[in-house]
Design a protein that fits this description.
Blueprint (H helix, E strand, L loop, with lengths): L6 E5 L3 H11 L3 E7 L5 E6 L4 E6 L20 E4 L3 H10 L4 E7 L6 E8 L5 E7 L6
Parallel strand pairs: 1-4, 5-8
Antiparallel strand pairs: 2-3, 3-4, 6-7, 7-8
Amino acid sequence: MLKSFEHVGMTVSDMDRTVDFYCGLLGLSLVLRKTMANGMQVAFLDAGGGMLEVFAPPGGASRAVDVAEDTAGVRHLTFHFDSVDEVFARLEQAGVEIKERPRFAVHSEMLNKIAFVRDPDGIIVELAERSQSRQG
């Protein structure tokens, strides 16, 4: 029987920058960080309803490539916030790369307001407020 969503794994080029972005700017919590015998760094970042398992290879990694609409793959990571406008303003002030400014969501049954930014490796991150019917 399914209990919950556990985690998604991702590769990044620089663990420090990634932890600073996801924990320092978005508010995730660092649960575990260590370096494996082969030099690979790994961290678990708790988002409250699941985690990111982050891998940083010792030689770095190239920038993420967006998944085309006609290609299978993960298109973005979405995090739920009380106020998209507030977190967006904080990220913009910190110099985070903006993909799309805050707007009302097309799927208003699910989400009220959304915005899109890029993490330090170009991975698309969606900021979302839930619709009134999904509050809680």
